[in-house]
Design brief:
With 302 residues, the chain is α+β, with helices and mostly antiparallel strands. The protein contains eleven helices and four strands; from the N terminus they run ααβαβααβαβααααα. The protein has a four-stranded antiparallel sheet. The two termini are 25 Å apart.
Length: 302
């Protein structure tokens, strides 16, 4: 068994070396496919980061009537905190709201002067609520409208935030759906292209395969070298892709960080290097092996 395996490996390497131009073409195709798969993974990582950043900036504000006591508001906060969809609830007193308002408009003396003339603090206390997923805001509004403290609420700031929240949900759903569809199309094209490339290499050795079949060689002995050849192609394509993406992620990281809300591509790539390499290696070897198995089936049916 060991001798047979050694011969299969030796023959597979010989086929890979002998058909250098076909081997190069196969590796080139696999590099393209693995690069697309890797790009899709990195893009998914970036979009997940951007979505989390955008979700962190979106919240729902509940403003209470001026005569509502702090204790009543804190009781409402405690009730909301128990909801499974609620990630965080922040209480902002009317004094804190006033300080934030002044800070935000410190360069506008007209607004500050108007505020001084009013005398009393016109800003109500509020609760800023964040949920885990954007679609949950709609359910939260329904809950607030039927809550035990509904009569204490002056305003729910959702309609102004709704377009942003809905847009965020649309982007999230679109990216997830698009990623799945693109992955399926990519997988089909990858197998098709690699299959035809490897099939051409096997076609050049059809006479040799026929002779082996006629003298009684087993299917494993005939198929083995081409499976190993496909695995070799996938391995070399993986190494090339790993080098390319290491260089590209380092070069593009600083440029991408400026307009992607601080996403560090190189940091994400190196942090997930083992997973990236595993995805690339699995894609390359599985692609080469499966394509070889499919391509040689015709020549084993004699």
């Amino acid at each position: 068994m060991f001798i047979t395996l050694k011969r299969v490996i030796k023959s597979g390497w010989a086929n890979f070396s002998r058909n250098s131009w076909l081997a190069t073409a196969t590796v080139f195709i696999m590099v393209m496919v693995i690069s697309l798969v890797t790009s899709l993974y990195l893009l998914r990582g970036m979009t997940d980061f951007l979505i989390k950043e955008l979700e962190a900036k979106v919240d729902l504000s509940v403003y209470f009537q001026k005569d509502v006591s702090e204790r009543e508001i804190l009781n409402a906060k405690e009730e909301l905190s128990k909801l499974s969809e609620v990630k965080e609830v922040e209480y902002i007193s009317s004094e804190q709201a006033l300080e934030k308002f002044k800070e935000r408009h410190k360069d506008n003396p007209i607004i500050l002067e108007t505020l001084t003339e009013i005398g009393d603090n016109p800003l109500p206390a509020s609760l800023n609520i964040k949920v885990f997923e954007a679609p949950q805001y709609e359910n939260l509004v329904s809950y607030l409208q039927g809550s035990s403290f509904q009569n204490l609420i002056e305003k729910i700031d959702y309609q102004e935030q709704k377009p942003v929240i809905e847009r965020l949900y649309t982007i999230t759903s679109g990216l997830n759906t698009g990623g799945i569809i693109f992955s399926l199309i990519l997988a089909f094209l990858a197998v098709l292209v690699a299959f035809n490339t490897i099939r051409l290499a096997i076609y050049n050795s059809r006479d040799e395969i026929s002779v082996q079949r006629l003298v009684g060689a087993s299917n494993w002995f005939i198929r083995g070298p081409y499976i190993f050849q496909g695995a070799i192609s996938g391995f070399f394509a993986t190494l090339i892709c790993l080098l390319i993406f290491t260089i590209l992620s380092f070069i593009l990281s600083s440029k991408l960080e400026t307009f992607a809300l601080g996403f560090n591509l190189f940091g994400f790539y190196t942090h997930n290097l083992f997973l990236v390499f595993s995805i690339q290696l699995a894609t390359g070897i599985i692609l080469g092996v499966v394509s070889s198995i499919i391509a040689i089936r015709k020549y084993l049916q004699i």
